[in-house]
């Protein structure tokens, strides 16, 4: 399965994609690695989508951080801080799902969140293109689309991940 096709399919049938990802993870000798790679690639793409904004920000004002510092801080945040926050969020979502009757495993809850980050990361690139065009309204619209897509894909993927074994999809 090509990841790019699965990303596109996630916008149409996220639960089906999640079922396939969970099945692939079960066969994987290192199941945690697959989800972690999804997360790291998604975070890297999101970071790259922010580079044009960081470069275009003015450095003329006194007291502003230089461009290389802004790039380094943003890189650190997306590669080291956000993954930790996503791990915590996945754990909390799994506990909430368990309290609401979910019967999935923690690894599947993490996979649902990490896949959702990767699935919406191309939309961040489109948002960056709108920003480069100087169209603030299109950039705001893309921000809303990113948020809605993330919530939709993540919630449907999490529902699938927390579904009891043998339950109908």
Molecular structure report:
This protein has 169 residues and is mainly alpha-helical. It has one domain. It is 79% helix and 0% strand. The protein is built from six helices and no strands. α3 crosses α4. The longest helix is centred in the middle third of the chain and has 33 residues. The two termini are 21 Å apart. The mean pLDDT is 92.
How many structural domains in the coordinates? 1
* Helix fraction bin: over 70%
Question: Secondary-structure element order, as H and E?
Answer: HHHHHH
Summarize the main sheet.
Answer: none
Q: Count every beta strand, where a strand is a DSSP E run of 2 or more residues.
A: 0
What class would the helix/strand composition place it in? mainly alpha
Cα(first) to Cα(last) distance is: 21 Å
Which radius of gyration do the C-alpha atoms yield?
18 Å
How many helix segments?
A: 6
Mean pLDDT: 92
**Outline:** elongated
Unreliable runs: none
What proportion strand? Answer: under 5%
């Amino acid at each position: 399965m090509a990841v790019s096709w699965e990303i596109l399919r996630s916008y149409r049938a996220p639960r089906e994609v999640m079922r396939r990802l969970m099945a692939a993870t079960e066969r994987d000798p290192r199941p945690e690695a697959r989800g972690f790679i999804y997360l790291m690639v998604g975070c890297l793409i999101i970071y790259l989508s922010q580079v044009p904004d960081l470069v275009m920000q003015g450095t003329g004002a006194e007291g502003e951080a230089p461009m290389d510092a802004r790039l380094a801080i943003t890189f650190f945040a997306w590669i080291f801080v956000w993954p930790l926050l996503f791990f915590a969020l996945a754990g909390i979502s799994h506990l909430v799902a368990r309290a609401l009757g979910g019967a999935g495993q923690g690894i599947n809850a993490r996979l649902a969140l990490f896949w959702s980050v990767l699935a919406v990361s191309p939309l961040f690139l489109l948002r960056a293109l709108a920003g480069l065009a100087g169209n603030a309204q299109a950039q705001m619209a893309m921000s809303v689309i990113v948020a809605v897509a993330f919530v939709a894909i993540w919630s449907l993927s999490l529902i699938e991940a927390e579904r009891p074994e043998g339950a109908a999809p």
